[in-house]
Amino acid sequence: MHAMELSAPKTPLIWTERPDPVPGPGEIRVKVLVCGICRTDLNLVDGDLPHPKSPVIPGHQIVGRIDAIGPAVTGQPLTTLALGARVGIPWLGHTDGTCPYCLAHRENLCDHPLFTGYTRDGGYATTAVTDARFAFPLGEDGTDVSLAPLLCAGLIGWRSLTIAGTGTRLGIYGFGAAGHIITQVAVWQKREVYAFTRPGDTKTQAFARSLGATWAGGSTERPPERLDAAIIYAGDGALVPLALTALRKGGRVVCAGIHMSDIPQFPYDILWEEREIASVANLTRQDGLDFLPLAHTIGIVTKTTTYPLQQANEALADLRAGRFEGAAVLVV
Questions:
Q1: How far apart, in whole angstroms, are the C-alpha atoms of residue 79 and residue 82?
Q2: Of 57, 275, 302, 326, which alpha carbon lies 20 to 30 A from 143's?
Q3: Model-wide pTM > 0.85
Q4: pLDDT of 78 above 60
Q5: Can you tell me the distance from the alpha carbon of 119 to that of 25, in angstroms, rounded to the nearest whole number?
Q6: Could you tell me the maximum CA-CA distance found in the chain, to the nearest angstrom?
């Protein structure tokens, strides 16, 4: 197999060759078709995530076809798996099933998890191995490229939308992969979406309006209406007090990233009146079982820019610089 490997933080990914992995008990191996690029991959490369596997193959929005099945896979609860079946491999790659959080049906907070493309090898590769219980069946509807962003941007977006509550007026700060997917969900739910981009980014603001956003402007602007909730997909902690000032009384700010820069000091009065700040951690298998069929029902259209696998460094650089709309996907 071949892969783009991270040998140390703050270094470019390296094209490397490895022996084909053999799936162990409860595991499947897939031939990777595509793998989405995520901002978390940038956090990994930048050294913002502690204790990664080293070296590690990044990537946790994997679409592939099963080409080998390890022992003790038959009868796994998530899906019936077969050679040739198309599956999606997300961020959450394993849980212990025995810690207090797993037993309380909060496996996203497991004390001993494994994360695809971080603490176990991911999908910037021609082949990947995963715990079969955490592979989502994708069927044959939709293209590989269009499905990849749903496996993290979509799933984390869905979880953050659920945590945000059912209010009508929803602010979205950071209009990239997750933002453009969840806008379509919120519009389908008859909500009003207020999209916040980098100041002066009129192109992305127009993109947001084209997807049904009621209003779009820069992150430092005040929306024309008070928001019931705001979701922050960007990694800039300075957006938290800005979002708080846009909320109505009792509103909620949801921070949806795995890493965020420090939140600056802010006056208590913008939090007062029962406003809340919440975070999103990882995902659960139930999130996937809830969201992926819904995405098909809604007819979500993912806007993607594709790169060959060997251009993963260029794709990450373009993500960092905001050079594309929507999501980036590596094609193997």
A1: 10
A2: 57
A3: yes
A4: no
A5: 18
A6: 58
| pLDDT(79) > 60 | no
- Tokens for 253? 């700010």
- 142 secondary structure, DSSP code: S
Residues near 90 by beta carbon (within 8 Å), at least 6 away in sequence: 60, 61, 62, 116, 134, 136, 151, 152, 155, 283, 288
- Mean pLDDT value of segment 147-158: 97
Indicate the residue type of 254: V
Give the phi and the psi of residue 244 in degrees, each rounded to 5: -60, -40
- Percent of the chain past pLDDT 90, that is, above it, reads 96
Enumerate residues 6+ apart whose C-beta is below 8 A from 166: none
Closest of 31, 41, 96, 36 to residue 64, by C-alpha: 31
Quote the CA–CA distance of 85 and 76 in Å, as a whole number.
15
pLDDT for 80: 64
- What span, in angstroms and rounded, lies between the C-alpha atoms of 235 and 257? 6
Look at phi and psi of residue 99 and say left if phi exceeds 0, alpha if psi is from -120 to 50, else beta. beta
pLDDT value at residue 76: 52
- Listed in sequence order, the residues at least 6 apart from 308 whose beta carbon sits closer than 8 Å to its beta carbon are 330, 331
Check if the beta carbon of residue 202 is closer than 8 Å to that of residue 221.
Answer: no
Helices (H), the chain: 39-45, 100-103, 144-147, 153-164, 177-188, 202-210, 239-246, 285-298, 312-321
Is 316 within 8 Å of 42 (Cβ atoms)?
Answer: yes
